């Protein structure tokens, strides 16, 4: 594949222009069609991607590994324990050495605030091949791209003026990363969506991400508002994306404190009553895994508004597009 994006890192959507992101999305739509027709897409024949996972994954690992296979290449699955990363391999060594073995490095490092994105940037500084973010403490750009693809599909590519709501929701696992909500508020305004961010006061996002979201909204001529009431957020929404995240900004990496704070807000759940506040044809999204019975009721996640399976499927097509364009 002849691509001007060859060699580019994909660490956050904000590093790519809107035109570049649209190019990736167009290719993702084309790849989705070819996948459905069973047409081969050997754009990365004999190429190798190294996937370093410092956290668990179902969708990100399997969509990325399947993408490499279906593009004609291969992906290696690497963990800290199964490599010498746990015994001292530095970001510099990883960047330089893996660059001599293959054609791309992908990393998931999302558990601790202030760690993952810095690590990826350090690997990218030394690597001579593209570095792809599989979710950090800052952004989850592959998830965000799949979410945009899903919204385009569901609303026939007519996004401008639609109300997109990212809301905090209670979950028993209290320390989910900030990557998805931050990635969403930064990227969605660029695609013409009016963004509402809803959360209890202690669950604010990083000020740098808020600043980028406000700037992107201003440049795109769309709204960006923050509310502390889940009902108010859901009112007249076209798209609702209720999910949990940790009170990292408030409690830093103190997980016990995050748990204590989250327990105050158990009523922040996506249920049928709240869904009825949104527009009739509103869609319910979640990057998964969801904490059923806490973040969302079964009736909503399995109900007529839910698009979670299409959203999860689009992880495959969008990561294929990013890998084909950059590698
Ligand atoms: N949405 C997402 O990134 O899922 P995994 O944690 O399973 O990769």
Automatic annotation (TrEMBL):
Residues 183-325 form the Aspartate/ornithine carbamoyltransferase Asp/Orn-binding domain. Coiled coil: none annotated. One of its GO terms (biological process) is L-arginine biosynthetic process via ornithine. The keyword tRNA processing does not apply. Its EC number is 2.1.3.3. It holds the Pfam family OTCace_N. GO terms for molecular function: amino acid binding; ornithine carbamoyltransferase activity. Residues 8-153 form the Aspartate/ornithine carbamoyltransferase carbamoyl-P binding domain. Keywords: Transferase. Belongs to the aspartate/ornithine carbamoyltransferase superfamily. This is Ornithine carbamoyltransferase. It comes from Caldisericum exile (strain DSM 21853 / NBRC 104410 / AZM16c01).
């Amino acid at each position: 594949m002849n691509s001007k994006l060859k060699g580019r890192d994909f660490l956050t959507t904000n590093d790519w222009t809107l035109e570049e992101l649209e190019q990736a999305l167009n290719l993702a739509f084309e790849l989705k069609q070819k996948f459905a027709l069973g047409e081969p897409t050997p754009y990365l024949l004999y190429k190798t991607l190294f996937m370093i996972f410092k956290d668990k994954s179902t969708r990100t690992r399997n969509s990325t590994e399947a993408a490499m296979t279906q593009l004609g290449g291969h992906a290696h699955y690497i963990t800290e324990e199964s490599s010498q990363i746990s015994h001292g391999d530095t970001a510099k060594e990883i960047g330089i050495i893996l660059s001599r073995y293959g054609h791309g490095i992908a990393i998931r490092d999302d558990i601790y605030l202030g760690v993952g994105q810095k690590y990826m940037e350090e690997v990218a500084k030394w690597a001579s091949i593209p570095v792809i973010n599989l979710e950090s403490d800052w952004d989850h750009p592959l998830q965000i791209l799949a979410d945009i693809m899903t919204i385009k599909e569901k609303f026939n590519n007519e996004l401008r003026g639609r109300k997109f709501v990212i809301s905090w929701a209670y979950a028993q696992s209290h320390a989910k990363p900030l990557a998805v909500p931050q990635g969403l508020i930064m990227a969605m305004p660029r695609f013409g969506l009016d963004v509402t961010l809803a959360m209890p006061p202690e669950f604010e996002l990083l000020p740098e991400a808020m600043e980028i979201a406000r700037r992107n909204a201003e440049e795109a001529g769309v709204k960006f508002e923050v509310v502390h009431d889940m009902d108010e957020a859901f009112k007249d929404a076209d798209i609702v994306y209720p999910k949990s995240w940790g009170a990292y900004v408030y409690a830093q990496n103190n997980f016990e404190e995050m748990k204590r704070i989250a327990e105050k807000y158990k009523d922040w759940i996506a249920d049928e009553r709240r869904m009825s506040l949104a527009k009739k044809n509103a869609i319910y999204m979640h990057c998964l895994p969801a904490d059923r019975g806490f973040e969302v009721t079964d009736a909503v996640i399995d109900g007529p508004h839910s698009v979670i399976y299409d959203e999860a499927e689009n992880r495959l097509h969008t990561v294929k597009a990013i890998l084909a364009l950059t590698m």
